[in-house]
Specification:
Number of helices: 11
Distance between the termini: 32 Å
Structural class: alpha/beta
Order of helices and strands: HHHHHHEHEHEHEEEHEEHE
Largest sheet: 6 strands, mixed
Helix content: 40-55%
Strand content: 15-25%
């Protein structure tokens, strides 16, 4: 079983019963153990942290940043375990959806809804599930292309909870066809695109902090095939509680790389980028 799946299952027993702040603290301790007990993930995180360190606001070393990323991922797992406590309205509140500064963004998304396909490009950063629930509350349902989380029961638990918040999870080749059909019907979808490419997969070269990164070009092919509006989207956790700041670029040029749009939140909160696999860098 994948070490993060073990962490989720172990954490789940306590995270549902403890007050949320104590659950976050327990998760950080548990992920310290995962960090120490999973050399492959630890070493990959350290290498990724070394890449980030010259460009971000972090006063410690690369190992300290890598360890902090594991701890922050533990906080995300608490949120994932407890998704069934949330409603779309609570998600909307958590991202400050009622603030006047976001009204123009919501109004624009509402104008596009069901009139043109919208494809959100997300990275493994902060909390992406909260954004899906917030979108459901203010605009409407969406579809998300998900990855295998390493254990069948874990997959089922997380995907069922996402569906309850208005996100339809799809996976694999069949899911990809469903997502394309959904976009062709002027639907809204989201993809976590910052994963390393699979063997023999078509790739693209993006740039992040001036360094070339090789990624799958899946999201670009989908956007091109469906004429979807491609929107970079992320949510930064504020402190160690349930408050988030959204980052989205409604004016993104689909012919330009996506990763540079995430440089501001990454520079602000590098510990919230959960990269436990080696990047393909040039």
């Amino acid at each position: 079983m994948h070490p993060l799946a073990i962490g989720y299952q172990t954490l789940g027993r306590a995270a549902r019963t403890l007050p949320r702040p104590l659950a976050y603290a327990a998760a950080r301790r548990l992920m310290d153990a995962v960090y120490l007990g999973w050399p492959r993930g630890r070493n990959a995180a350290r290498r990724n942290a070394e890449f980030l360190l010259p460009h971000v606001h972090w006063s410690g070393s690369a190992p300290s940043l890598a360890r902090a990323q594991f701890r922050r991922y533990g906080e995300y797992l608490v949120d994932a375990v407890r998704l069934d406590e949330l409603t779309p309205a609570r998600c909307f509140e958590a991202v400050g959806g009622h603030y006047q500064t976001w009204s123009d963004h919501w109004d624009q998304l509402e104008e596009w809804h069901q009139r043109r396909p919208v494809l959100f490009a997300a990275i493994h950063f902060g909390n992406w599930d909260i954004l899906g629930g917030a979108y459901t509350h203010r605009i409407g349902p969406s579809m998300v292309l998900v990855d295998d989380l390493g254990h069948p029961a874990l997959n089922q638990a997380i995907q069922d909870q996402r569906a309850r918040l208005g996100m339809t999870p799809v996976a694999g080749r069949r899911g990809l066809r469903q997502l394309v059909d959904h976009l062709n019907d002027n639907g809204t979808a989201a993809i976590l695109f910052d994963r390393p490419p699979r063997p023999n997969e078509q790739t693209t070269t993006e740039t992040l902090f001036g360094r070339e990164v090789i990624l799958s070009n899946e999201i670009h092919r989908i956007a091109s095939a469906t004429n979807a509006k491609l929107i970079p989207l992320a949510a930064t956790r504020q402190g160690h509680d349930f408050r988030f700041t959204p980052h989205l670029d409604l004016t993104h040029d689909p012919h330009t790389p996506l990763l540079p749009a995430f440089e501001p939140p990454l520079a602000e909160a590098p510990d919230q980028w959960y990269q436990f696999r080696d990047r393909q860098l040039r």
